[in-house]
Amino acid sequence: MFGFVTSVADLLTPEEAAEVLEFGISRFELHIALEYGDGEWAEWLQPPENISDALTGFIWSALGSPDSAERWQATHCVRRLVEFSCSRELSSLLGWSQNGGVAAFGSHQFPFYRLHATLYLLIGLSRGAIDNPNPLLPHANVFVNIALISMPHVLIQRAAAALALLLLKTSSETYAPTVSEKLRRVGDSPFPVREVKDPDPTPISPTLFPAEDLVPDIYLAWDFDDYWFKNLANLFAVDREELIDSAKTIAVRDLGVGATDGHPRDGRKELWNSGSFGYWATSHDHGSYPRVDDYAFYYSYHAFFSIAARLLSNIPIIRRLGGYWEDHTDPWGEWLNRYWLTRSDGRWLSDRRDPTPLKRRHWLRDADRQDWLWGVTSEDFLDCVAVQTSLPNSLCVAGSWPDNDYSRVETIRVNSALVNRDTSNALANAMRTREHVYSCRLPSYRESDAETTQAPFQLTGWIVEPDGSETRLDAFDPHAREISYPPLGIGETFEELLDLKSDFEKRHWRKAGSGDVLIKSETWSDEKRWRRGEREEPFRHGVRVCASIALLKQLCIMTDKDLIIEVQIARREERSYSKNESNYSYVEPSFKVFVFSSDGMLKDAGKSHQLG
């Protein structure tokens, strides 16, 4: 039936198409209840006549969507409007934000997440302004009002102030000096940090609201008491229960929650937790974020950050000294960064996501091999280190990535380090004959626990392997696909030694004044769980560093060392998707150790390969 419609649609005249549509709709009307959807037609369902207002109204509604992936899609749209200097649409979009409503693009039955929309609007505008701030200069006062006058909210005020200061860099006359100074202080405590030696100082009463105010009869979302307010209360050494009561007051007074709503019911929750959005899309715990925010999470989240702003302006921050409990040198900054974007430079995770490599492992063309699970050959290791690279005439010197054919998954790990020439073969042989693959490993840059400094067995790491960052506000950006960040890099000592300069993304390293890329760091992902109803299955993702053979030869010459490279290949079958009924137990990864020397020779235990 649908194929027939596709075939004949282009043959219909406008009048015939309207007649068929009217017939189809009239048939539906016989069976649809009056209260279904938005109910019967009403004037509020009339969209704006101006096309720019209609477009931006749709974007504004998506910015306030309960679905985090949908919010991020809209945020990317906002960024593009700024980058493309769409002044008319930006004016219209800011008009929607100041009005606060969503009109025909929302529903009278469910609340619109206005503060979500405001926060993500600012995130999108800020990212666009990094590359093209000029379209936002006429609206500079809007951001000042949000940062300095609107409802206290540490995230929204921080985003607005940062955007305003970005515009100030573009035009020094954007704001008066007194306003500029106030913007610089947004998000900073007006008090000196109070240092204490007691890990559990006696909590004080925050008294953010008059004591005689009745505490609303509502509940906050799951885990907010233990995993959100607990840390906030510790940051100021205040009573947690009083903070929770104050958050309920804010939810009622500023966010429109009914004072006696108890557990406000959201009629959309059953839909969100069905297969349409991925099962249990609203679930969250231990301070994590859900994929879809139900109403309780929405008002709890924004009440939480409003409380944080009020505490910041009224109570000094606590820093505990001494012992294992000693706090971060900047307790407030460390706490706040957990709830902001992953990157600290204003850019997004998606900016650093690389294309998934085009080169695939050869076994994918022969996936029916019965011995695949344990049939790793010597050529497989050489392929991983010398063929599966993204630079011409290069070697993979670090990385971890899986490849799969749906049910069969192969994970490749590559590590390298510098070792004395006189002892490189001895170390390689010791690694080759170890009992278990995980009983030793090569060090990363400045990893003191794994590096060896005693002559003649010096072993030096040169690849920077950053600790993985926590899940933050951009965790569900579908264009980031949960990539690993920060990516792998090169130790600064070796950058200086080899006279290398990287771009700001730490993606490419070149010689000063040269256009040739000598080192390339990649991070990629094809993760699809953000899609509605998408089930979890193996997907391609990974990190990798490739370096030109000529540069590696220079590295070995300048350090008077060899480069030892270990390649591990682990294979497994995803039994949920496998056609193979055999029940194989765990198969330990296979591994091979190579030694690369300054003459371009890559040697394993039995063969030598001349490279470069």
In this structure, how is the largest beta sheet organized? 11 strands, antiparallel
What low-confidence regions span 5 or more consecutive residues with pLDDT below 50?
A: none
Q: Helix content range of the residues, please? A: 25-40%
Strand content: 5-15%
> What is the count of DSSP helices, taking H or I runs of 4+ residues?
20
Mean of pLDDT: 89
Straight-line distance between termini: 61 Å
Report the strand count.
15
Oligomer status:
single chain
Layout of strands and helices, then pairs:
Blueprint: H1 2-8, H2 14-29, H3 51-63, H4 68-83, H5 87-99, H6 114-131, H7 140-148, H8 154-170, H9 177-185, E1 194-196, H10 224-227, H11 229-236, H12 240-253, H13 269-272, H14 295-314, E2 318-320, H15 331-337, H16 349-352, H17 378-387, E3 394-404, E4 408-420, H18 424-432, E5 459-460, E6 463-464, E7 489-490, H19 492-497, E8 500-502, E9 508-511, E10 519-525, E11 541-548, H20 549-559, E12 561-573, E13 590-596, E14 601-603, E15 608-610
Parallel strand pairs: 1-2
Antiparallel strand pairs: 3-4, 3-11, 4-5, 4-12, 6-7, 8-9, 9-10, 10-11, 12-13, 13-14, 14-15
